[in-house]
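Worked problem 6 (solution included).
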Amino acid sequence: MPADAIIRYPGKFFWVDPLAGSPNHAAMFPRPSAALAAALALTAVAFAVDSQSERGRAAFQINCAACHQPTGEGIRGIFPPLAHSDYLMADKARSIRIALQGTSGPITVNGLEYQGVMPPLPGLDDQKIADILTFVRGSWSNTGDAVTPAEVSDVRTALAASDPNQTDPFAPLPQPPAGFKIREVVRLPAHGVRLATMPGVNWIFVLNPTGDLYRLEPDTGNLARVLAAKDYAELAVGGLDALGLTIDSRQRLYLVTNQRVTETPWHTNRVTIFRSAPLDATGVPANFKAWVRTSYPWGNSYYNHGVGHIAEGPDGMIYVSSGARTDGGEIDGGVFRHETIYWKGGETDYTAGIWRLDPSKDTPGLEMFARGIRNAWSFAWNERGELFSASNGPDADQPEELDFVERGKHYGFPYQFGDRPETEKPYPYTPDAPPGLTFVHAIRNVGPAAGGSATKPIATFHPHSSPAGMIFCGADWPAALRGKLLLGRFGNMIKSPDVGYDVLALDLTRNAAGVYEARTEVFLAPLARPLDLLPIGKKLYILEYSRPIGTMTGRSLSPGRVLELSW
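Solution. The predicted structure is:
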């Protein structure tokens, strides 16, 4: 989701004396009486708080309503309520700390236990955090006082002074498979979402979700920022959500961003793919500018998975994953149906699928290569040039999907997903499929890991386990892994028990009917939310998004690290 509120309101009230400083006019225009001044001061405070609350309401809808709902009621047993919340109102400083750091593990709100994860609110400054908390503390039967930016700053300073690298420890390194070694390369100062490199260099790019790009030297652990979002993106309309990164065979850097923009008649998601000139050995991008721009109506309510993974295919074309703008195809906005800022349609022609672009063109056309893919964080090709994508499922308890992706085909979303029969709708509001539309079903997992078994295969992995980075194991890999896919699983953010937090090895073979099946084993575990994988020669780099493993730690999602697995 975008990290910054777009709608802005005036936040201060000023008493203006147009003739201040002129002694000749001071007697003619005396200052207000003490009583009037006091009344004006009270009015100014009330106006400021009201304005702050209105700003907070707008920022809450963008950053918080996904889980806590626009009414603050949350979802019973999953996302705790903020409305009439004893936990929220009991400790003002704690609420600020949670907004800054996030939290995880069991908490009790209004007598009911919740066991989930709240990530920090990324990229929000002290004023916006204060605005959101002021709105929440004064809404839905809550009667708390306002939160000031100074109070947020004090908590932020205290957290920084506590040295989170020490107070929030990293998980122990997992036991590597036989024949492999594992080491920690670097502890990241900010969250990472993607890794990329190119032949002949000794560095790796690490992308931060706010759009900053770092260069990491794995041999030394040296980490330096080579590109700041403010240097290439138009940030005036709101914060970036940077989700895609690659370097093509001509050594050009590509970076994919999403940006929520306030437009009429509804908010839109502005998608930009930036591209550089060929990189030199330093890795500092030159002539970095927008290559592709497009937009579509921002998600139906809070859902907008955005445009993310980008990679060059064996055919030399550029492929890009475009996530769904809905959870399950809803078209009326649900609880948001009265919010006029959201378009009330379902998916568009350019969401929930994979794009293909021609890198030889300065202004390429946007081809929808395949449709019906809900939210593929990653995709990869095997040695035969066949494409596979790993997609995250809806909030409904449906398995996450692994799909064999072919041009022009439809993979079901939002009409069908996972194991659910085509005749059974995932949600009551699931739209009817267009007449004559044929779906390609997800690959079945026959086990023994990730929820599948030979007697009861599923399509494809545990619900909510969040498939993430995926790679193909080529000739550099040991024989036991050669020809297989490796897939990281970020791990669940909702529901229990915990699932994911690992890297799976997928052996894909065709069954008697000629349909791919996956024989799945756990390759490496446990990991702290592995989000991306990058193979370089006889080494695999694993990007851990955060530090704790599982949802029951009671800890925040502090920035993670990069690991190196070698053989």
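Discussion: Residues 1-47 have pLDDT under 50 and may be disordered.
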